[in-house]
Every structure is written in structure tokens, then in C-alpha cells.
Amino acid sequence: MRERKKRKLKVSTVLVHLALLVLVFINIFPLYWMLTFSLKTNDEILGYSYKDPETGVRVQVPPNHVGLPHQWEWSNYAEAMNTGNMGQYFLNSLVVSVSAIAITMVASFMATYALTRLVWKGRKMMNKFFMLGLTIPIHASIVPVYIILSRMSLLNTYMALIFPYAAFSLSMGILISTGFMGDIPYDLDEAAFLDGCGVWGIFLRIIAPLMMPAIATVGIYTFLQCWNELLFATIFVSSGQYRTLPVGVQQLFGQYTTRWGPIGAALSIATIPTLIVYIFLSKRIQDSFIAGAVKG
User: Fold this and answer.
1) How far apart are CA 162 and CA 169, in angstroms?
2) Nearest 5 degrees, angle CA 279-CA 285-CA 287?
3) Which domains does the chain have, with CATH numbers?
4) CA-CA distance, 166 to 229, in Å (whole number)?
5) What is the value of pTM for the model shown?
6) Cα distances (angstroms) measured from residue 48 to each of 16, 55, 58, 67
7) Which of 28, 78, 241, 268 has its CA 20 to 30 A from that of 147?
8) pLDDT, the chain, mean
């Protein structure tokens, strides 16, 4: 009986590991395909034909979609950075993302403190008002946001993207921060108040340092929202000086002919920061989600 159970356990373990390997392959293959795609020529990607000098017969070479490049075209990255101006677009995306993350963190932490730690009339209604932001699709507000930015003369500036990105990330930031702040004992507030701290003193000296684990969660959520957004960046910014990476990649598509290698290189450049954030912060993000879910 024990031997049968051991065999069943071994078979089930093998099946679980095989299923996990399949999932790993499914998730890693698009990244592999994009990186190899960025190092190929147009002829290798689309296929080509040539005339055999000995037989005079035209030979058709099929496209190489999955295999490694026959000739590694590192010049595709140089072309994307120089011709496609990816360096400037990368810097613009970095400025917009970092600024939106900073505004979202400060605003969401302060709003959460006011909604959860302070007692005032209408705070529950205000909390519901903020949570309504989770139900509104970000792109459903293009027209009113465009009109507001136009009247404030903010179109074709960094602020045309920073303010909307931060505003639409605020509701989720408050929701995440509420779970963390709810775990902080109220006794700390009372002790700080007895020691002479006011509202700002309690927030800056007691609450803010204890909210450090929430920074990873709010930061990565806001970063992904800002870094990959295309529609706002296309409509609110038409000047090449302030374009972000998604818009820059879109500009590489030609009207008549398209160089697919540099487009793949541009996509890789746009994806690398997200991969770096995931590699270094994935464990921290998972832990912060678990910590915030204990009470929130």
C-alpha cells in the first residue's frame, strides 16, 4: 500500500512539474521571440527568393520566425536609437513615469491617512467617491480631460500626461494603502499625540515610515499604467519633443515599407525596464500584497 501511495505521489509530482514547465515556456517564449526578432533582417523575417546561378532556377527561402538569427543584426538597436529617436522617447517615458509615481504615492498616502485615521464628517462618502474611480475606464474620459488640458494650456507638455496618469492611479493607490494603514495600531497615534505631535507630525514621523512596504505595490502599479499607455500619449502630445516610448514605436511603421528589425529593437528597449523592475521587485511586491491583504 505504501509503495502504491509513493508511486501515486511521484506521478502527481511529475505531472505538476510538467504543467509548470509548460506554463514557464508559454510565458518566456514571447520574450525570446521578441529578442530574436529584433536581431534579424527584413529578408530573414519575411523570407526572400534568389536565382541559383548554376541552374537558373529561382529558389524561395522561407521566413525564419522562431529560430535564432542567421546573422545577428545588432545595428537594429543603433538604428532604433538614432533614426527612431528612441533615446529621447525613453527619457520622456522615464520623466513622466517617475513624476506620476511620486505624485500618486504622496497623494494616496495623505488621502488614506485622512480617510482612515482622522474623524470628520463625510469621510465615508468621500472614500466611496474615490473608489468610484476604479469603475471608470481611463479612456472613457478622453474628451473632458482633453478640454481641461487645452484650457489650462498643458497640451504638448509633460504635465499633459503626468496629471492624468497620477489622477487615474489615485483610486487604486488609496485602495492598496488602506490595507497597509489599517494594520498600524491606533495606539501609536495616541502616544505620538501625547508627546506633542500634531496631525502632520503623526503622519510624517509615525505613519509614513511604517508605510514603506506599500511603496513597492503602489509604485509598480503606477509604473505599469504609465509606461505602457498609448492613447493618452497619442492624443495629448503631438510634439516629438515630449513623445513617450509607445508612441515612438508606433512612429517606426513606414507608409510604404517597414524595417521590422529596428521595430523589434524598439520594443525590446521599451520592455527591458519592466523586466528589470519585475526581476528586482517581484518578491517585494508579492510580500506587500500579502501584507496589505491581512486586514484590507
Assistant:
1) 11
2) 120
3) 2-61 (no CATH), 76-292 (1.10.3720.10)
4) 12
5) 0.78
6) 43, 18, 10, 16
7) 241
8) 81
> Which alpha helices (H) appear in the chain, and where do they start and end?
2-37, 42-46, 75-82, 86-116, 123-131, 142-151, 159-181, 186-194, 199-202, 208-210, 212-227, 231-236, 245-251, 260-292
Q: What angle do CA 218, 224, 227 make, to 5 degrees?
A: 130
Helix-helix angle 86-116:75-82, to 10 degrees: 70
Write the DSSP assignment of 176-210 as a string of letters. HHHHHHTTS-HHHHHHHHHTT--HHHHIIIIIHHH
| The three three-digit cell numbers of residue 152, written as one number | 489650462
Residue segments in the chain with a per-residue pLDDT below the cut of 70: 1-9, 48-61, 254-258, 282-296
For 62-73, how does the pLDDT look when each residue is reduced to its tens digit (9 = 90+)?
777 777 888 888
Residue type, 11: V
Written as nine digits, the cell of 95 is 520623466
pLDDT of 146-188, one tens digit each? Answer: 999 999 999 999 999 999 999 999 998 898 888 888 888 888 8
For the stretch 44-53, contacts whose Cβ atoms lie closer than 8 Å and that sit 24 or more positions apart, written own/partner, are 44/69, 44/70, 44/71, 45/260, 45/261, 46/260
Rounded Cα–Cα distance for residues 239 and 152 (Å): 17
What angle separates helix 260-292 from helix 86-116, to the nearest 10 degrees? 20
